[in-house]
Amino acid sequence: MLATTVTSKPRPFDWVKENHNVLSKTEATKTHCYLTEQSILPNRYSSLVFNAVMKAKTSLPEGLFLKINLPILIKQEPDGNFFVEDEVFSIYGLGETTLEAINDYTLSLSEYFIIVEESLESDHRNLKKFEKLTKFISR
Amino acid sequence: MPVDMAKAKNAVEKKLRGHRISKKDPHYWYKIDVPEPIPPIEIKCPFNHPYHDMSDNIIQSIARMMGIKTRFLADILSCHKDYDDLIKQLEKQDRRNG
Fold it and tell me: What ipTM was predicted for this assembly?
């Protein structure tokens, strides 16, 4: 669902060095293979800010999906919660973990699409907004 | 500066005359009616997290959805500016590009 580009400068995590008391080098190297996802999306990291991309064809709630890649930004709030927003519509999501924040974001994006779509029935002023939305989202 | 959530809710509902868009639980989506030709404003507010403050990130995001600067929204939420100031600002410059 996500492709990421780290923009902050996280502390390099040397799994072998930091766990030499717990695991042998071989065991640690094996384990490291399974930590890729975790190192991209840490659950707790102070001053975390990085860019990611929600990839085209990602399913959204309400039967919608992304037509093209949508850039998003993931930040950590001062209280430790996570904040996800896109740089196109400025929709955001919140959560105690990155995954929860991303799920909240995708739900919010779908809701926004439906709100704007429904508003067109009585108000033509949202037409530009809807056209912009349909460049990225479809049913 | 983070804003107290109760104060922010009061500002959105009373000062900005925002009315909640129904059937979007647990989210709080508000529509703020504005005179033509300004496009209507739809914003999502984190009032389902009442025990937190509205953080700078959230204020920044909502300000962008409204087409105004973060500082301007902070002034609205903290009592210095009101609905009329918002309309004047949007007539002068609507920062929404869509």
Answer: 0.91
